[in-house]
Description:
Layout: H1 4-29, H2 37-73, H3 88-93, H4 101-104
Amino acid sequence: MLDHEYIRATLTHRLAELRAQVANIETDLQQPLDDDFAEQAIDRADDEALDAVEQSALAEIELITRALGRLEVGTYGTCTACGGAIAPKRLEAMPAAGLCIRCAN
């Protein structure tokens, strides 16, 4: 049986980390560009990389938020596509998983 309180704490901790990461990225992205054109090119490339990291973090935030919602309503561990059980090993590896391995493939 899954320890829902441990999972909730793990997801909540990860959610806080991701929100802090997104806030830091937003701060970095708001910095003005350097006057030097070569530096601007580097800054823009860095900004593109940061934007990709931010998008990934935002996607993970969404998954975690949904998982926390399923914990609240008592459907955590149930596949959102087929309604079957999600294997405990999958949930250990990916606590925010909403799909069983069959539906995820």
